[in-house]
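Data deposition worksheet. Section B asks for the primary sequence of the deposited chain exactly as it was used as input, without tags or linkers unless they were present during the calculation. Section C holds the resulting structure in token form. Section D is free text for depositor observations; keep each observation to a single sentence. Incomplete worksheets are returned to the depositor.
Section A, Depositor: J.P.
Section B:
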Amino acid sequence: MEPATGILIKAVSAAGGFLGGSSLLVYMKPSSLKEAIMRVLVTTVAATMTAPAISLKLLDNDSPEVLGGVAFGIGFIAWNVLGAIAQFFQNRQGQDIKQIVKGATDD
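Section C:
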């Protein structure tokens, strides 16, 4: 198969992220239509931004099949990862970075 071009890379990444985010809705039911749309949009954008970098730079593979698989995986896990990061920062709101690092090394 031919190497992916710029437009194809973004299209395959968006499609894979959309499918990954949509399939996540089967496992984690949204509470409203607005939340479902937000989840799919966030996972699609996350996959569109990160899948090309992972596929082309880390895996050194530019085939659309690999790119679509990477984008699907990112779309599937992006909502959980972003939620965990947001919760981490929300729990440590008001703390200085030195306090957070010191608390991690004391354990």
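Section D:
The helical segments are 6-27, 33-58, 64-91, 97-106.
The mean pLDDT is 85.
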